[in-house]
Amino acid sequence: MKNKLKTLMHSKLVKVIITGVAIGTVGIGSTYAWWTAESEAAYTVKTGKMNVKADFTNIENETGYEPGLYVEGDGTIMNTGSVDALVKVSDNSKIKFAYDTDENAIPSDARVFEEVDPSAIVMDILPTIDDSQEDAFWYTGSNGDLYVLMIPGSQVSTHVTQNFLGDKLDNRYMSAVVNTKLKANATQAIEEASLANFDESMENLTPYDGNPMDKTFSTNDYATRAMEFLNDMTNKK
Q1: Cα 20 to Cα 177: distance, rounded to the nearest angstrom
Q2: Which of 173, 182, 14, 203 is nearest to 98 (CA)?
Q3: Listing from the earlier edge strand, what are the strands of the sheet with 113-115?
Q4: How far apart are CA 48 and CA 113, in angstroms?
């Protein structure tokens, strides 16, 4: 009985010692709960809106045109967005033929608009320069494309002439419908945006020096102000 009791006591003592060692080991390996603190400062910005509107006014008689004649009218382009815009202005006219290439009549329900042949129907876009305007300027790109740089709320005008060249318009063009379109394709007035959307560097833009409708136009003065305007745009942050 004593031996069993001694054995039992010895076993409990060993367990107590082992347990004590285990607890001691956990105590040695534990870490402190270090104090921490955090603060955050923030501000909110809102993105702007890119939007332009192109329109035609004062279109002359819209019917009865024939080879050798031309149609003309005035166009306007407005920056109706809230950010500066670089606008590429181009011809986007369409034509719906009444006859096929063999001069056979096309059923009316099968007639569709398609791109005009720029060698047969030629659009001339002539900026109307306001020599006192300071919120928008015209430029020519490296490939001869026409651009206008505009701040929000600005508006520019153009005079458009569409020529029907007599030596190019054969019988297929009889009874055709021409949808004259002035296209204003806009992007941000930022170098990277110009390269991505127009494959044109803003550094290559040169002030427009064509024959303006406004006879009081001063080429040298306009070029100086246009370059200052362009530099301000390209250097903005």
Answers
A1: 100
A2: 173
A3: 113-115, 94-96, 177-179
A4: 35
Q: Mind listing the pLDDT tens digit of every residue in the chain (237 residues)?
A: 545 445 544 554 444 444 444 444 445 556 677 877 776 777 666 667 889 988 876 555 566 778 888 888 888 999 999 999 999 999 888 999 999 999 999 999 999 999 999 899 999 999 988 878 899 999 999 989 999 999 999 999 998 888 999 888 999 999 998 888 888 899 999 999 999 999 999 999 999 987 544 444 556 788 899 999 999 988 886
Sheet holding 206-207, edge to edge: 182-188, 85-91, 146-150, 136-140, 206-207
Residue 114's CB: how many other CB atoms inside 10 A?
Answer: 10
What's the residue count for the chain? 237
Q: How far apart are CA 139 and CA 86, in angstroms?
A: 10
Contact 108, 199 (CB under 8 A): no
Q: Residue 121, Cβ neighbours under 10 Å: how many?
A: 23
Virtual torsion, Cα 26, 29, 33, 34, nearest 10 deg: 170
Q: Give CA–CA dist 156/136, Å, rounded.
A: 7
100-to-64, 119, 169, 233 alpha-carbon distances in Å: 20, 18, 13, 49
pTM assigned to the model: 0.76
SS3 assignment, position 6: helix
Q: In this structure, are residues 168 and 117 in contact, taking their beta carbons and an 8 Å threshold?
A: yes
Contact 174, 98 (CB under 8 A): yes
| Residue 39 in tokens | 């603060």
